[in-house]
Design goal:
This protein has 179 residues and is α+β, with helices and mostly antiparallel strands. It is 20% helix and 45% strand. The protein has a seven-stranded mixed β-sheet with strand order 1-4-5-6-7-9-8, with helices on one face. The protein has a two-stranded antiparallel ribbon with strand order 2-3. Strand 2 and strand 3 (41-56) form a beta hairpin.
């Protein structure tokens, strides 16, 4: 893993953050199967290889992103050799003592180097110090790299919301208990 610094982002750095690539690609999808019977509802997900890679669009419009980032409780930036190469935006939900990760992006040329993991671990540390008990990470069902990273970091699948995003994609939720 490269030597990166994770630090709070400044509001003036938001243009740099939104200039990062906010899309990815995936060769897999978590396919949902739902079975509804009179006394039972069953939902399962299984990872399925796609016939070709798909582009995973960022779920929020780039026009609304600056305002969304300003509303985060904390915004952490990953800095590599003086350049911002990633960020995570976390919202504190006081009533449930939960940290909600809604924004996570890493420059395309720096992916698969542990930067997103470092950002999430730093966010977990921040949330723990605030006395929060759980962190929730949301992602597209098509974002296999994010799903694998969440599972690698000990997050557990904790639910889904069908047609959650504006493009009607399924959102998957992963949670981690904080110490």
């Amino acid at each position: 893993m490269p030597e990166i610094e994770v630090r709070p982002a400044q509001l003036g750095e938001i243009p740099v953050l939104i200039s990062l690539e906010h899309y990815g690609k995936s060769d897999y999808v978590w396919q949902m199967e739902r079975l509804v019977e009179e006394t039972q509802l069953s939902v399962t997900f299984r990872e399925v290889r796609l016939p070709r890679s798909v582009k995973v669009e960022y779920p929020y419009s780039m026009e609304s992103l600056p305002d969304r980032l300003r509303q985060q409780t904390i915004l952490l930036a990953a800095v590599l050799k003086g350049d911002i190469v990633g960020y995570v935006g976390v919202e504190e939900r006081v009533g449930t003592r939960t940290a909600w990760v809604a924004h996570l992006a890493v420059a395309a040329h720096c992916r698969r180097e542990g930067i997103a993991s470092a950002l999430l671990l730093a966010a977990q540390g921040w949330a723990s110090r605030r006395g929060l008990r759980r962190m929730i990470l949301e992602t597209h069902s098509k974002n296999a790299p994010a799903i694998r990273m969440a599972l690698k970091l000990g997050f557990e699948f904790s639910g889904y919301n069908d047609q959650y995003y504006a493009n009607q994609d399924i959102a998957l939720f992963f949670s981690s208990m904080l110490r």
